[in-house]
Design goal:
The complex is a heterodimer of chains A (about 450) and B (about 425). Chain A is α+β, with helices and mostly antiparallel strands and about 450 residues long. Chain A contains 16 helices and 18 strands. Classes of the chains: A alpha+beta (about 450), B alpha/beta (about 425).
């Protein structure tokens, strides 16, 4: 518990209206988008300026109070759960878009701007920030950087770290660091900014972000292809890319969640198929027309059905169906365990087959969806944590799947990060020397370990 | 008083409570979260609080009640939810659990239980308040006035239109037959709602005259009461709400359709079956009542199928630029979005422009705007900015509650844009 003197000091720093302490508010801040983790913070602090963040951290360092940074709280790794209580430092009230510069193709924002609001502001000026985590309607820019977020568009456009030009970060002791700048090229010293991309709030609090932008593509087209075999679908994506067409998105949905496509595609085709590929191409109108034709031709060779969206409304329905995969699958079981492995593209079919074998062995249902274009999969094991035996088998299956991905040359997490959810696998998935260096960096930047304690690596004694 | 562990109202909508995956899709669209930026303001935070209530981790404290009240029930979250979670339903049920245990606080208990059912007395008290407002508070320009007395609780200094000198139901007969020579096509009951009755009676007269000219017999049942929205949706008082529902169902039992000019009244009355039916007889009666309720524009376009030549623009609106504000209860609850636009676009004597974010909540939401006036006002500020950006002379809508919020918001910004109900455009 934090004593009332500290609460008074926090009120003094950020103002009474920017402090939450009621039990009800603590419950509302005890969770994120994961379904197994929760912990009550003692106080939620909502600063509105960098100087306030600095003062809060100075106080927290002095008093050795854990500080859990939070934005929208939409992560799926447990990263914004205050697992040791203390302060939740929530940046949602630092929500100004400071500048959008069309000539220089850059923008500067505060960490609490919701990604979708940023995207809409850019779209009004014909600009584009590609990373599109599927939490875009709630996640905030600070979290996008701290989680180094990706999404469907990353197949063609890369992940967040490729767009960071400059950061302002407050360290655990309250020091304010200004890193990088506004130019796309900058070779001044170490790329310290990159330490904070994917730091999951363990190294500092990001208070200002400058990002590289792209001109928005003139046109885009969505193609849907239905396949009766997973491996063939994966191979088709490989073939498309090998033929020099790089789609902006290539997504994969298995037949667990075909329901949303009923009425859009013939029942007979859906009933006899295993996977849907959703492919988007973008660029100049002429390019989009030519690439669409190319993709359709390649898909027709092996798919059971191929359809080009006739207008934006139809395309939107397909992408909405893709987005609702997670909630659709969640509605099918009491508990779901959602993984985030990434494997080399040429191992996709093998990965799916081996994972399916494992699910059969442990007798648990499994569903796949994901960003097939870059090999980043979200296998979901459906279980019920009230049924101890079933849940234990589900967790073993998940262990197995992660082992399969790593053995195939893949990684533990493509985009969700480690947080609490994946730390039990970290030792297996990371070079021990690299893990050691990571901890040394943590000691330099946050020697008292007050920032997001308990995240990424397992704590001593566990 | 209900037992602490009996959450039967919430249990009724348990499927919705379970459906939420906390993905956060509600966050960018929630009007309250947009202003407050805290978890308890948004759908997913409220879902977590209600789940915790069922698990015993939180109880129905004053603070919990405050969190539950802090929602406009605009339904935008549900519309954007990938899991189709009907959050406002769960919130309303949770409000009912609170009301069943802790009751409703003064002055609302007095207004809802005692005053609102006494229709005429309620009207007189409202009028009395309107006299006081002129005596004790400065009058503002035009048709807007500051109210005092208990309406100040409803108003908190907001600009509110003057209470009408004569209420609608004192001004029109109970039975209004079609203009002589026009054959009767339908007989409808007109549910006037409190706002039209007490504040905007001229709107009611226009609607009756418009309908009778177009072959519709309009009954204005004297026995009708308040729709009950602030009582059972706003405060979760299902017991009093049920009394209101029974009164209205009886009052309108023998008409083809029940017409409203207030989207909130219409959708609240359609919701009687969902929330208030406590036996099979009421379930049947409320359902049968609900399907006959039509918003006025829905009735004109879908049922009466009037040609555009039937609409004559009143002189004062001729050659004006007009924009439309979608009331939440109209566009999301009743699914009426195209009908008013179809009418407006077909009128040769006005210029119709679509404002950006036309379907975004205005922040009124009845008791919400009393309890959280500051947040309500900030929500309205965004709406006002969109109205001004549309460069319209007139903003029209389909809900007198929204009208009051828009009048207040535009007046605070010194805007000259007029606020009207769509039916006021016609002569």
């Amino acid at each position: 518990m934090i004593d009332s003197g500290i609460i008074e000091q926090l009120k003094h720093i950020v103002g009474r209206e920017n402090i939450l302490t009621s039990h009800e508010d603590m419950v509302a801040y005890s969770f994120d988008a994961t379904n197994t983790w929760s912990h009550l913070p003692d106080v939620v602090v909502l600063p509105s300026a960098t100087a306030q963040v600095s003062e809060v951290l100075e106080l927290a360092s002095r008093e050795k109070i854990p500080v859990t940074p939070r934005g929208g709280g939409t992560n799926v790794s447990g990263g914004s759960i205050a697992i040791h209580g203390g302060i939740v430092l929530c940046t949602t009230r630092m929500d100004r878009i400071i500048d959008i510069n069309k000539t220089n193709l850059n923008a500067t924002v505060e960490p609490g701007v919701i990604l979708q609001d940023f995207q809409e502001a850019l779209a009004r000026q014909g600009l584009f920030f590609p990373p599109d985590p599927q939490s875009f309607a709630g996640c905030t820019m600070g979290g996008v950087v701290a989680e180094n977020s990706g999404g469907p568009s990353c197949l063609k456009y890369g992940v967040t770290k490729q767009y960071i030009l400059g950061l302002e970060v407050v360290l655990a002791d309250g020091r304010i660091l200004k890193l990088g700048g506004l130019t796309p090229k900058n070779r001044t010293g170490y790329e310290l900014m990159m330490l904070f991309a994917g730091s999951e709030g363990t190294l500092g609090i990001i208070t200002r972000i400058s990002l590289r932008l792209l001109p928005a593509p003139q046109a885009e087209q969505t193609i849907v292809a239905v396949f009766s075999d997973v491996a063939v679908a994966g191979q088709t994506v490989t073939d498309i890319i090998a033929s020099s067409v790089l789609p902006s998105k290539a997504e994969f949905i298995d037949n667990w969640t075909f329901e949303k496509f009923r009425g859009l595609l013939p029942d007979a085709v859906l009933d006899s198929s295993q996977v849907i590929l959703l492919i988007q191409v973008d660029g100049l109108r002429e390019t989009v027309a030519a690439e669409t034709q190319h993709v359709v031709t390649l898909c027709r060779e092996k798919a059971a059905g191929v359809r080009v969206a006739q207008d934006k409304a139809e395309a939107d329905r397909y992408w909405q169906a893709r987005r609702s995969h997670f909630s659709d699958i969640s509605s099918r079981a009491h508990t779901i365990v959602n993984e985030d492995v990434s494997v080399p593209r040429d191992k996709i079919a093998e990965f799916i087959h081996l994972s399916q074998d494992s699910a059969r062995r442990y007798d648990v249902p499994i569903s796949f969806a994901g960003h097939v274009g870059d090999g980043n999969f979200h296998p979901v094991v459906l279980t019920d944590n009230r049924d101890k035996d079933h849940y234990a088998r589900a967790l073993k299956c998940v262990d197995d799947i992660i082992g399969i991905a790593l053995d195939l040359g893949g990684v533990l997490s493509g985009e969700h990060g480690i947080g609490l959810e994946k730390q039990r696998f970290l030792k297996r998935a990371m070079d021990p020397q690299a893990l050691e260096v990571m901890k040394q960096i943590k000691d330099v930047l946050d020697p008292l370990h007050i920032l997001n304690p308990g995240k990424i690596w397992e704590e001593d004694g566990k | 008083v209900k037992a602490d562990t009996d959450f039967s109202q919430i249990e009724k909508f348990k499927a919705d409570l379970d459906r939420c995956t906390k993905c956060g899709f509600c966050m960018s669209v929630c009007p309250v979260y947009r202003e407050e930026r805290i978890e308890s303001a948004v759908a997913r935070g409220k879902i977590m609080l209600i789940r915790s209530l069922l698990e015993g981790d939180v109880t129905l404290t004053d603070e919990m009640a405050r969190q539950l009240n802090k929602c406009t029930l605009c339904l935008t979250c549900a519309q954007n939810c990938p899991a189709s979670t009907q959050v406002p339903t769960v919130i309303t049920a949770a409000r009912a659990e609170k009301a069943a245990r802790r009751g409703i606080s003064f002055p609302y208990n007095f207004i809802y239980r005692w005053l609102l059912p006494r229709r005429r007395l309620f009207g007189y008290i409202v009028r009395l308040a309107s006299w006081f407002q002129g005596i004790f508070l400065p009058r503002t320009e035009g048709t807007v006035r500051h109210l005092s007395f208990f309406l100040s609780a409803l108003g908190k200094g907001r600009h509110i239109p003057q209470i009408a000198p004569k209420f609608l139901r004192q001004s029109v007969p109970e039975i209004n037959l079609p203009t002589s020579g026009v054959p009767t096509r339908f007989t409808v009951g007109y549910f006037t709602g409190c706002m039209t009755d007490f504040v905007f009676p001229e709107l009611g007269k226009k609607i009756i005259s418009f309908l009778t000219k177009n072959g519709v017999a309009v009954i204005v049942p004297r026995a009708q009461g308040c729709c009950g929205a602030p009582v059972f949706l706003g405060s979760g008082d299902f017991v009093t709400g049920r009394r209101f529902a029974d009164v209205n169902v009886r009052a309108f039992h023998d008409v083809d359709y029940i017409i409203t000019d207030c989207a909130t009244c219409a959708s609240a009355m359609k919701d009687y079956a969902k929330y208030l039916a406590d036996n099979s007889e009421r379930q049947r009666d409320y359902q049968e009542f609900g399907v006959r309720i039509k918003d006025i524009t829905e009735f004109l376009v879908d049922i009466l199928k009037l040609p555009s030549s039937a609409y004559h623009i009143a002189d004062e609106f001729r050659r004006k630029t007009v924009t439309w504000h979608d009331p939440c209860h109209l566009c999301r609850y009743l699914g009426v979005k195209e009908q008013p636009r179809q009418i407006l676009k077909s009128l040769p004597d006005i210029k119709y422009v679509e404002m950006s974010g036309a379907d975004r909540c205005c922040g009124m939401a009845g008791t919400f705007s009393i309890n959280f006036y500051d947040t309500s006002r900030r929500i309205a500020d965004r709406k006002v900015a969109d109205i001004i950006a549309a460069q319209a002379d007139v903003v029209v809508t389909g809900c007198p509650g929204c009208e009051i919020q828009l009048i207040d918001g535009l007046a605070r910004h010194g805007s000259k844009v007029q606020v009207r109900h769509i039916m006021e455009l016609f002569e």
